[in-house]
Design brief:
The complex is a heterodimer of chains A (223) and B (881).
Chain A (H helix, E strand, L loop, with lengths): L6 H16 L8 E6 L8 H10 L9 E9 L2 E9 L9 H4 L5 E3 L6 E3 L9 H5 L6 E3 L4 E3 L5 H5 L5 H5 L5 E5 H6 L15 E2 L15 E4 L8
Parallel strand pairs in A: 1-10
Antiparallel strand pairs in A: 1-8, 2-3, 4-5, 6-7, 9-10
Chain B lengths: L2 E3 L7 E2 L14 H8 L16 E3 L32 E6 L9 E7 L2 E6 L25 H4 L1 H5 L9 E3 L7 E4 L2 H19 L4 E3 L19 H9 L3 E3 L6 H11 L16 E5 L3 H4 L5 H10 L3 E5 L5 H5 L3 E3 L6 H14 L5 H7 E2 L8 H5 L5 H6 L9 H8 L3 H13 L3 E5 L9 H14 L35 E3 L4 H7 L5 H4 L17 E5 L3 H4 L3 H8 L4 E6 L11 E4 L8 E3 L7 E5 L12 H12 L2 H4 L12 H19 L6 H7 L1 E3 L10 H6 L10 E2 L3 H5 L30 H4 L2 E4 L15 H4 L6 E4 H7 L6 E6 L2 E10 L6 E3 L38 E7 L18 E3 L3
Parallel strand pairs in B: 9-17, 10-16, 11-12, 11-15, 12-13, 14-23, 17-18, 18-19, 24-28, 25-27
Antiparallel strand pairs in B: 1-3, 2-8, 4-5, 5-6, 7-8, 7-19, 20-21, 21-22, 24-29, 26-27, 26-29
Classes of the chains: A alpha+beta (223), B alpha/beta (881).
């Protein structure tokens, strides 16, 4: 499945990669996801919308709703953690890419991947602490969420957000979400005190500074 | 639509994949790549009957020539990737009998749907991107609707008429022409009617292809019923699998099944008791789940009474009360006892609106005949058994303290919604649970007020729903039986008593005549896979002379048919969609693409058959025989007339048909949330019952003398009572052999059997049996182990899922899995209806949740589906630390 790449294109891409590796892109606005772990019913309409939008075969899942449960009968609990690509401030996938296919957008901070440059080496998959890059065997490439960049450019929100039946998933400027200043249905006023950068069993956000926030379940908080 | 053939269709094929000529590929990658690129290419390897055939829906100019050898796909997103705004946008909706209806927006190029999105606020009148208000929320599609493209272009899609060539059920078919298939059916119908009389053809249409106003599958309003009725040979199936207990209860208690509030009313409750209700799975109503979230944000408390800690309990942070299956009526009786003995009932409401709640509200004639009131029963005046919380606790396994606490909460919080869901009614004596719940709703005065609930069935905002002729020929029947007794009737004919099959009484000489069923029609129905006790059905179907299956997909029922007729999906025909259960909006459903293969609409098929049988013009008065080939103008005429007559004139809508077609959606704006029985309570309008009151003591039931002459067959008490079911955990004898109580709820990833074959949805679940960790330890099994679930009626093989979220002693296996028998008759697919009993409750409730089973680890094969598509299980992570 060896793929012929344009050498000139790769050279340019690698220059960009080196630049962005040593001096992380500071986007004008860093967009990120906010997900309410408690109010989410785990219906996975977002996952289906994502599969349809990106035309994915069974196997690769750009967006993954994880079901968490615990306790002992009858004192049990359950919540959902919903994650795709976290469009990190310092993405670990980016320096790992040998062809420079991955780069970060200056305008909105979306970490994008140029699939024509991807050789399917899967190094980004290994580097990402959150499991975002997804290998597509039949195409021998890795692909991932690009926050529906075409929809963003058209002034709309990504398919997953627009699919959410409970209105618990949203995107917005991450700094405003942190302050609770962003107007969204993902959290209520009461939820604002539960907005966290990390939930239990999630990789340390210090690694890459992911652009995602959660309204955490009491049992999901990192103490 | 053009079709290309390479070498013609082979003679004969076996639809079951393990016997296919040419091994099936696990994943048809070429097909997926094509989907990704917006090319439709029917799988040429799987399902032998498609072999050698390349059908390209792109034949209308998009990509002709690519079909047989797709261009090597490039990856998203740098190949030419059509953006939404580059594509043609068509508003339509999902279909099927899920209890809801949501908008789907097709983005298409040529005759190919490239992707689907949903309501984003733009399409309605005065809409804009992002509009999503409490009064006019977006109607966003669920995961099933979003996966629809894979169903439309599925390898299991039925594209041509087929006729059986092997034994029935063997799954061997040959492709035939429409003419051959329809001639065969018409001749057989005439022969059967002449030989066996007007009850020989059984109507098993159901809601699988509803809910369009023109192309409808249904027992009462459906196209098949009118067709067979006009032909003069029809036995209908009167009990509804999903909610017959509830329907009966609501009719007896309130005189109507329209006992529901619109979903926005939930946002006004202070307490919502979800009794066996899991709106995180079933999505009843356009936005029920979302309004419940608003209620939670406004301080509403939630309670879940259910053997399972469902996602609903988690999302709404409910107090979970685990209860033994089938014992709901007992727990509710215990609550009623607490409320009465603590004098917490709303006596003013009872005195004014209720019949038979207590001595004072019993009618004189009933007292004279010695009938007891509900309160007398609860306090044990006649049977000497007070239905105390302690008494109830023994039966239902809920601590008496919890029963009291819940009763207190419910009686003292107002408004409070006791949402008595359908599932606990799908039981032996399920109607008693529903009637008992209605008694509690009435005694607390939570009926007819905003934030309360009388549900029940839950049907709320009512709209006209039939655009084809609904006249004296609609729903004509010559016998009508309980739906899941057909096999019993066929196997025992003529030695069948009328009460055994729930024969509906008639005023003429056909009354009491047992139908001699010789043929079945399935329209929008996968009932062979879905009714109870499938092994008995398998015996019965062998005795039939004609089995016709009309569907867009090759279904497990279809494999048992003689003739398969390919039906156009709702993307391929013109219609208007409306939610049937709750929701006040209408969605235009244009013909988004041309019908694939040779598929036709049900209405086209019945019209053509009617012409062959001599009543074509009467059956479809707007059409000529050309309708079979050109239905568009006739469909348009029916729909326009419906819109103008029923929606504009009758419902007072000012939007014209042309504007509706342009926008694609009409949302009603209600000045206040629709609440059932508001007028009865606020204005004193009588209820539609014999007494004009809420009948906890039912006038109708009290007056039956000979129960065998009723449709029910067996006695039903006039007041709700706890009656011991025939299989439950309290049965000390039966549980020795079969210690687990199996319940079979609706899954989230299918609508009954529909969507079972969708690869994307397959990634989100596995057909598995859920048991408690303590039980798993006893059985020596862990999550992922394959087990056999069995009782005297059947055996199924599934993986096990071990959790703390289900009550010990209870097992959960979702309904709707496609049956897949091995050579010994063991179901490898895990369909629980091999274990259910075809013994409905007297009122007709299917006993889907009245099953005792045992479970053992096995080396038998489990197969997740007919194909071996990826089942990348989305793991549940257990976190103990």
């Amino acid at each position: 499945m060896a793929k012929k790449l344009d050498k000139e294109q790769v050279r340019e891409a690698l220059k960009r990669k080196v630049r962005q590796t040593y001096e992380p892109v500071k986007p004008k606005v860093q967009l990120g996801f906010i997900h309410n772990n408690v109010d989410c019913i785990g219906c996975r309409a977002c996952e289906m919308a994502c599969k349809d939008k990106n035309g994915l075969p069974p196997g690769p899942r750009f967006r993954r709703v994880q079901y968490i449960e615990g306790g002992t009968f009858p004192k049990v609990y359950a919540y959902k953690v919903n994650m795709s690509c976290n469009h990190c401030a310092e993405p670990a996938c980016l320096p790992a890419c040998p062809t420079g296919a991955i780069w970060k957008r200056e305008d909105n901070g979306v970490v994008d991947i140029d699939s024509t440059l991807c050789i399917g080496c899967r190094k980004c998959e290994a580097a990402c602490p959150f499991g975002a890059p997804q290998y597509i065997p039949e195409l021998n490439i890795v692909s991932k969420c690009n926050m529906c960049i075409d929809e963003l450019e058209a002034g709309r929100k990504p398919y997953c957000v627009m699919a959410c039946m409970m209105r618990v998933l949203d995107i917005g400027p991450i700094d405003q979400i942190d302050k609770g200043a962003y107007k969204t249905t993902a959290y209520s006023d009461a939820d604002k005190q539960n907005i966290v950068r990390q939930v239990k069993n999630m990789a340390n956000p210090e690694l890459t500074n992911p652009s995602i926030r959660f309204v955490a379940h009491e049992q999901g908080k990192v103490k | 639509m053009t079709l290309e053939y390479e070498g013609g269709a082979p003679e004969m094929f076996d639809l079951r994949s393990d016997a296919l000529p040419g091994a099936p590929k696990p994943v048809d990658l070429a097909n997926f790549r094509s989907l990704l690129r917006g090319v439709v290419r029917v799988n040429t390897t799987r399902r032998g009957f498609l072999k050698g055939l390349t059908a390209t829906a792109a034949g209308l100019g998009l990509l002709t020539g690519l079909a047989s050898k797709p261009k090597k796909a490039k990856a998203f997103a740098y190949e030419p990737y059509p953006r939404d705004d580059d594509l043609e946008t068509v508003v339509t909706s999902c279909a099927h009998n899920c209890g809801s209806r949501h908008m789907l927006v097709a983005h298409k190029k040529g005759d190919v749907i490239v992707r689907l999105s949903t309501d984003d606020g733009r399409y309605q009148k005065d809409g804009y991107f992002g509009k999503d208000t409490e009064a006019e929320p977006q109607v966003r599609a669920c995961l099933r609707g979003r996966s629809y493209r894979l169903r439309l272009y599925s390898p299991e899609r039925l594209l041509y008429p087929m006729m059986r060539v092997g034994e029935r059920g063997e799954g061997k078919f040959k492709r035939v022409s429409w003419d051959e298939a329809l001639s065969f059916i018409a001749e057989k119908m005439v022969e059967i009617k002449q030989k066996y009389g007007p009850t020989a053809l059984l109507d098993q249409s159901y809601a699988g292809a509803s809910y369009g106003v023109l192309h409808k599958s249904d027992q009462i309003e459906g196209l098949l019923g009118r067709f067979l009725g006009m032909f003069g040979c029809r036995t209908s199936s009167w009990s509804v699998p999903s909610y017959q207990g509830t329907t009966f209860s609501s009719r007896m208690t309130f005189g109507t099944i329209e006992d529901g509030n619109e979903d926005d009313a939930f946002a006004h409750s202070k307490l919502i008791i979800m009794w066996g209700w899991n709106p995180a799975y079933t999505f009843h109503g356009g936005n029920t789940f979302y309004y419940m979230r608003l209620a939670k944000q406004r301080g509403c408390k939630f309670v879940l009474v259910d053997p399972q800690y469902t996602d609903s309990a988690a999302a709404w942070d409910a107090w979970w009360i685990p209860i033994r299956p089938n014992t709901d009526a007992a727990m509710l009786a215990g609550m009623a006892h607490y409320i009465f003995t603590n004098n917490l009932q709303d006596q003013a409401f009872i005195d004014r609106f209720v019949q038979g709640m207590d001595e004072g509200t019993m009618p004189g004639w009933a007292k004279a005949q010695g009938f007891e009131s509900f309160k007398d029963y609860i306090l044990g005046k006649s049977d000497g058994v007070p239905k105390t919380p302690e008494w109830a606790s023994e039966i239902c396994g809920v601590p008496a303290e919890d029963i009291k606490k819940l009763a207190h909460m419910y009686a003292t919080t107002k408004p409070a919604a006791l949402k008595a869901s359908w599932a606990p009614g799908r039981n032996a004596y399920g109607e008693q649970y529903n009637r008992m719940a209605a008694a509690l709703q009435a005694m607390t005065g939570n009926i007819g007020i905003l934030g309360g609930s009388a549900e029940g069935v839950g049907k709320a905002f009512h709209m006209p729903a039939v655009a084809y002729p609904y006249d004296q020929f609609a729903n004509v029947w010559f016998a009508s039986i309980k739906s899941d007794r057909w096999a019993h009737c066929v196997l025992n004919y003529p030695n069948v008593k009328r009460e055994e099959i729930g024969l509906w009484p008639r005023p003429d000489n056909l009354d009491g005549v047992i139908p001699n069923i010789k043929g079945i029609f399935w329209q929008g129905s996968d009932w062979f896979n879905q009714l109870t006790n499938i092994n008995k059905e398998i015996e019965a179907i062998k005795k039939l002379e004609l089995v016709v299956c009309m569907d867009s997909t090759i279904t497990p029922s279809g494999l048992w048919a003689d003739v398969l007729l390919p039906v156009a999906t709702h993307f391929e025909r013109h219609d208007i969609a409306l939610p049937w259960y709750k929701g006040h909006y209408l969605i235009h459903r244009p013909k988004v693409i041309e019908p694939m293969g040779e598929s036709k609409t049900d209405f086209q098929i019945f019209t053509e058959l009617a012409y062959r049988l001599g009543f074509g013009p009467q059956y479809n008065p707007r059409a000529t025989r050309d309708y079979f080939h050109n239905p568009d103008s006739v469909d348009e005429a029916y729909l326009r007339a419906f819109w103008e007559r029923e929606i504009m004139h009758h419902m007072g809508v000012s939007m014209t048909w042309e504007e509706f077609k342009k926008r694609g959606v009409y949302k009603f704006k209600l000045d206040k949330p629709h609440v059932a029985f508001r007028d009865q309570i606020e204005k004193g309008i009588p209820f539609n019952t014999p007494s004009g009151k809420i009948e906890i003591f039912s006038t109708t039931l009290a007056q039956y003398k000979d129960w065998t002459k009723t449709a029910y067959g067996y006695p039903i008490p006039a007041i709700p009572k706890w009656i011991e079911p025939w299989e439950w955990l309290g049965d000390k004898e039966k549980t020795k052999k079969y210690p687990f109580h199996l319940v079979t709820p609706h899954p989230r990833w299918r609508t009954h059997t529909i969507f079972h074959n969708i690869p994307w949805l397959r990634e989100t679940y596995e057909q598995e049996i859920t048991i408690n960790a303590a039980d798993a330890k006893k059985l020596g099994v862990r999550t992922g182990d394959v087990v056999e679930v069995y009782n005297d009626r059947g055996r199924v093989v599934v993986p096990v899922y071990v959790t703390e979220r289900v009550m010990p002693g209870v097992a959960v296996l979702h309904e709707g899995a496609w049956m897949d028998l091995d050579e010994k008759g063991i179901d490898r697919g895990g369909n629980p209806d091999f274990l259910t009993l075809d013994e409905p409750s007297p009122a007709g409730a299917f006993a889907y949740n009245t099953i005792l089973v045992n479970i053992r680890k096995t080396t038998l094969d489990h197969r997740p589906g007919w194909d071996s598509l990826a089942t990348a299980r989305s793991a549940v992570y257990r976190r103990d630390d």
